[in-house]
Amino acid sequence: MNTPSGRSRRTACTALALALPLAALAACGGGSSTDTSAEKGSATITVWAHQGQASEASALQNAVKSFNSSQKNTHVKLTLIPDTDYTKTITATDASKLPDVMEFDGPTMANFVYNKKLASIDDYVSVRTMANATDAIKAQGEIDGKHYGLGMYDSGLGIYGNKKLLDAAGVKYPEGLSDDWTAAEFTAALQALKAKDADGRTLDIQEGNGLATEWGTYGFSPVVWSSGGSLLKDGKAEGALDTPAVVSALKTFQSWKTYVDPNTDGNAFAKGRVALSWVGHWMYPTYSKALGDDLIVLPLPDFGNGPKTGQGSWQWGISAGTKNGKAAGAFLDSLLNDTNVTAMTTANGAPPGTVSVLAKSDLYKQGGPLQLFADQLAKPCGDSRIGTSCVAVTRPVTAGYPTVTAKFSQALSDVYGGADPETALAKAARAIDQDFSDNDGYQLP
Amino acid sequence: MTIVNPAPATPAGREPAPTPASAAPRRSGHKNRDRVHGLLMSAPALGGLIAFVGVPFVYAVVLSFYNVRLGSPLPPRFFGLEQYRRIFTDPDMSGPFLRSLLNNLTFAAVVVPVQTGLALALAILLNRKLKAIGLFRSLFFLPVVFPMALVAVIWRLILARGGDGLLNSALNVVSFGNWGAFDWLGDSLTAMASIIVLSVWQGVGFQMVILLAGLQQIPGELYEAAQLDRASAWQQFRHVTLPGIRGTLVFVAMLTSVLSFRVFDQIYILVKGGGLDEDSTRTVMYQAVTTAFDQNNIGQASAITVVFFLVVVALTLIQRRVARTGNED
Amino acid sequence: MARTRTPLRRFLDYTVLSVLAFVFVLPVLYLILGSFKPSGEVLSGLAGFLPTHLSFDNYKAVLDSFNSDATGYFWRFMGVSLLLSTVVVLGGLIINSMAAYGLARLRWKGQGAVFTLVLLLMLVPFEAVAVPLFYLFNDQRNTIYIQAVPFIANAFSIYQFATFFRAIPPSIEEAARIDGAGPWRTFFAIIVPMSKPVFASVAILTFLTQWGSFLWPVLMVSDPLVRPLPLEMSVFQGQMPVDWGQVLAFGVLLILPVLIVFAFFQRWFVQGVASSAVKG
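The joint structure predicted for all components is written out below.
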């Protein structure tokens, strides 16, 4: 813990000592073991990161280790926090108590800028690091021309296909983005597959993750964007999220439920029970191991406004209250170097977030198995200019994102469960707008 | 597991004291001295109670009238009764809260009779002079000492969906292979039932011990007299046992109903990491915590807290009233 | 119901009790057996209930897998839980019994009003103040003392102590007073030693509640270095990919201290619980 926390803690203990002498003695005496003071003349940088998969956690711990051994005067102290509690932990922690460097999920960035928890990193990270970030990563970390975060990796959505099953059912599937299938063609493909399938369930949408979660928003807002709608337009959901086009797209989505394998064991696609799996890049390692050459990667279906995918992932930023900005910047430079980005993206199979590693990546290079994801990310829309020609959409960059995702994913889950899309979307839009008006539109300072 | 409104232990072998007023007669010279010492002695605990119970509670009431968000740069804004309107009557926003109230009522409506009845049955079974009866008492009491975080995990595995869960697998054997995989926690029909089962398992030993103590206070002569009158076992239960423990039974039932309104740990753990169906199991406390912690909406969470408190107080007051009439018998 | 029974009745009693006890203990058996099984066998239905071979591998893995400041250390979680329980139990015994004595046995103006206030505060369950406390003490997140201090003063403990103290005959204090002892000396030298039962039952109930405490740590703790065991239990079982054998071994280690206390103080446990409810 850094200095300010130590001070206010002492104040609290003094106050406590006046009120409850014994309690203070016991509690403040015992608690001091958590304070680790830095050695004289050197800086300790505290870092928070989400725990992630075991392989990601160890890649990160190695990055920290190598940074520490390369530095004389700076020492990084890493704390891993469970994924499910990560965002709320940062939200709940007072700005003065945040670590020097912290990771955060892409769409939550605006909220942390709004809450004055993040500093702009432009002054701290080197020009080289900034220049090496991919456009999509830079776009994700930017608000009003300032950058608040950079990521080691990006993300992408697609549909994994089982070539053998598709061919057996005589289904024609797209080669890439240019000849993407429309929603109607996709429905027809599902029907054709159903005829050949034992239980009639031929699609996996990772239902086990739950749809009223960030997976729901990330995985299926492309349906909204591809139909010409958006989650939020000029700070309002009404008129963007509840348009007739979006309603009709979600009706189509709803109609697919009969084809969906509940996939309670997580093995539906790998075991060949379904021919199609609607999911992100992260399943590639598992799927390619299970299917080998039969694995193909397809874009999400086009609902009229061109195929779309989600984008963005965990980013690194520097907290607004840091006293070690320079050292924190040096740590970010080190995290984002080729060695560490390669190690991390090897661990989780994600699209690298830096130009140099992306160029060398066997998975994402031209002709590589995941070239589609790289192609999608090369056509970024940002969060508001969602036209027909761009593909990778950033989730709304707004401090009100927590509400947007909560309400949208709930509506999505309700629709999937059988609710009327028009009612559900209108309700979500009203709830989002109500929350925005409660918070004066989440105007960034 | 916390105890609500209980009656006290008394020093072994002593009669309860008369009223406090007559307990310690003093000459007036002691009064001033005693006041200083009395205040000094109670100051640490009183300070703690005021700081960590009194003040926060009043603060909750105040916060519930404001639009206040955790970490927001906007100052809290006076909201009047808006938070209450939203959780009770707003067509868009009242849903989850009203559902949580309903879930709590369902939980209580099942758990109170089932757990009390089971506890009574166990207590009667265990109120015998048998060898090793102490061992049996300990076995039934054992789950009470298990933290809910652990209970939730054990039952999550027993109820695991898929054929590899213990329950599904056992049903499959019993039904000669006709039982498939069933998602006990994830299915909206059985999610609440699963929570009830694991909560009763964990809690019933507690009520059992209280009832057992109640049973042991019934004088043995009453049973001997009943036997002389050739009363059947059921008649003895009906006319000796039940009246004898009526007060205790009412107390246990009310205690269980208050505890059942405080359900949180198992719901939170199993929704967040165990595939528990959220909507059919969310409780008022779950709603308060997620509103505060996941949505940062402190104002609304405070309003939920205040409603929660009013329900608990109402239950406690009913409990007192019933217990009083019970004791007059 | 304590009557002599025929051998047949006794046999029936034992059968019913044994069957019920087995059903009750099954989850506990499942926990303990599972903690010694290879992980693949934990979730393998009825067939895997009885393990093929037992080992301490899971325990070793649990103790080894938490091995850095970033993830925390198992013994540290345990230490935090023990420290919190000790502080809350001991601190609580001291200040709550003192308060109870001051309120129940010393006569002073306003004493009745203060005692009524304590009774009123007893109506407020912790859950009802968790949200405002969370908001009020937000800047003290991730400290040991914010996890312990709010739970030391306890209205219910005061009430338990007070009722016990009131039943002590006044003649005992009178004698002490004649010997020249003030209220403090009377309390510590005479009242406390003769009140062991109530101290034991308050200590046990407080310990049980504190050891399993979950709601408050969920709200206030994210740093693994000050995380108590039950919270880490829920974190550990939610981490993908889950190794169930290790999770159950963690569970056994979590319950072990309570079981030890339970084994030694069984009588007090039961008596403490029972006396918390039954009058006279």
